[in-house]
């Protein structure tokens, strides 16, 4: 169980990753992302999740440097985008990401989506980077069970993470159970369903019981399900509020109540149709 902002999860290769972090999808490059990263680090976040597709890797790197916290204390994730996939092109994409971030290595590098006919060779390129010590851990994003089953037949390094859309309207039980069996850590993007869950009556009601916002209830629910969580925000106030979820515990009854909100509804694309 993740019990504080500084708590870490041990991944299947022995690397420790913070259980809670900042996502920067759709955060503008430049001052906006620099400020968001700096604020998050000041609050106590030690994990930042970006991607080449987000076009803000330079700002993320700058924000980390300006935070004054030693590089080795901050866990940085990036991802290879779909039009960069393939063995050699993935290796080139990695070099571009590292250059933009201004780093010598990445803590975690992910295959962003399972591009049909490409994702296995893309992952094999990640294995090369991992074996060379350029990345501390490798994994995938938006993979269904069948993608993982296919990948596990061909890879020599098991993915440490599967980062997927996960929230009370999309609990992905089969996928979560599979990842737990295979010791692949589930990580949640869009935990608030891009804001669409904040008016859900059940979440408002549960929040009132604990003196918390619906967002804090959702993030706490994620954490209590042992899912690494990376809410996105550019507001200093919201970045702080999102992290204030370690001073209360949802009861088993309330956890089940939130579980029952599942309607298998996505705010993003289905990986099979993307």
TrEMBL record:
Residue ranges the record marks as coiled coil: none
PROSITE patterns according to UniProt: ALDOKETO_REDUCTASE_1, ALDOKETO_REDUCTASE_2, ALDOKETO_REDUCTASE_3
InterPro entries referenced in this protein's UniProt entry, alphabetically: AKR, Aldo/ket_reductase_CS, NAD(P)_OxRdtase_dom_sf, NADP_OxRdtase_dom
Sites marked Lowers pKa of active site Tyr: 79
Residue numbers annotated as active site: 54 (proton donor)
Ligand binding (substrate): 112
Location of the NADP-dependent oxidoreductase domain: 31-262
Gene Ontology molecular function terms on file: oxidoreductase activity, acting on the CH-OH group of donors, NAD or NADP as acceptor
Keywords on record: NADP, Oxidoreductase
Pfam families recorded: Aldo_ket_red (PF00248)
Family: Belongs to the aldo/keto reductase family.
Protein name: Glyoxal reductase
Classification lineage: Bacteria, Bacillati, Bacillota, Bacilli, Bacillales
Gene name for this UniProt entry: yvgN
């Amino acid at each position: 169980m993740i019990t504080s902002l500084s708590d870490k999860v041990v991944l299947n290769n022995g690397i420790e990753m913070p259980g809670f972090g900042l996502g920067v999808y759709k955060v503008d490059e430049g001052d906006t992302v620099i400020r968001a990263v700096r604020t998050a680090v000041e609050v106590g976040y030690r994990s930042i999740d970006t991607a080449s597709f987000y076009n803000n890797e330079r700002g993320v790197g700058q924000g980390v440097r300006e935070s004054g916290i030693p590089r080795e204390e901050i866990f940085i994730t990036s991802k290879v985008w779909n039009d960069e996939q393939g063995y050699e092109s993935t290796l080139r994409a990695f070099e571009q990401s590292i250059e933009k971030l201004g780093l010598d290595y990445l803590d975690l590098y992910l295959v962003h989506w399972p591009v049909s006919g490409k994702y296995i060779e893309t992952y094999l390129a990640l294995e090369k980077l991992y074996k060379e010590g350029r990345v501390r851990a490798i994994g995938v994003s938006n993979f269904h069970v069948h993608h993982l089953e296919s990948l596990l037949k061909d890879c020599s390094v098991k993915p440490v993470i599967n980062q997927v859309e996960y929230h009370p309207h999309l609990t992905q039980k089969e996928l979560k159970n599979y990842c737990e069996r295979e010791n692949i850590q589930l990580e949640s993007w869009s935990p608030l369903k891009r804001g669409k869950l904040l008016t859900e009556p059940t979440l408002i009601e549960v929040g009132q019981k604990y003196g918390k916002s619906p967002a804090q209830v959702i993030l706490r629910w994620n954490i209590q399900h042992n899912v690494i969580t990376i809410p996105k925000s550019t507001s200093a106030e919201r970045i702080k509020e999102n992290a204030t979820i370690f001073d209360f515990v949802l009861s088993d009854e309330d956890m089940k109540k939130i579980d029952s909100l599942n309607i298998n509804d996505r705010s993003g694309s289905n990986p099979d149709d993307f």
